Hints:
Elements: E1 6-8, E2 11-23, E3 26-37, E4 46-53, E5 62-67, H1 70-82, E6 86-93, E7 102-117, E8 123-140, E9 146-152, H2 166-188
Parallel strand pairs: 4-6
Antiparallel strand pairs: 1-2, 2-3, 4-9, 5-8, 6-7, 7-8, 8-9
Amino acid sequence: MVAPLKTRGNVRLLYAEVQCKASPGRITWRVTFATLALMAAQPPLTEIPLFPLSTVLYPGAPLQLRIFEPRYLDMVRECARADSPFGVCLILQGQEVGTPATSAAVGTLARITDFNHGADGLLGIAIEGGGRFRVAHTRVRSDGLIRGEVELWPDEPAAPVPVEFLLLQTIGERLVETMAPHWQRACWS
């Protein structure tokens, strides 16, 4: 006899099998339980190139980058052809240039929104932050480009600013309005 599938707490009962054996002068019952721990549905992992930076890219925020290392020129070419994002992660240890840096296990997807060539001959790209992600695994290609298997984070609901912090919100908005033109010019120089 096979019992129906049941769930108790965080354990799923796959089946319970009851066997009855009769022998002369004796009846034995054997009950076999097979269980499987319930696993939360694992979101699919996506593999993307990672770009470690010493700055943070926020969702929805623009950022200007100058690209000159061959590994990142190849990454930009690949992302532009496939219209796919790459990931920006904060550097925890190492440098932006040279050997692959150790980066944070969280980051932001980046989409290329514009290209330009500077007077110095370097490729300039404008990117915009998209969704956030958590890095599950990384590997370094032979050219030094880091690729990561990432799990996308769902967006968090917007929360209202508490009344006691409304003045700070206003000051921050005015600072951005005043300084944004200066910051944009500084990024391309």
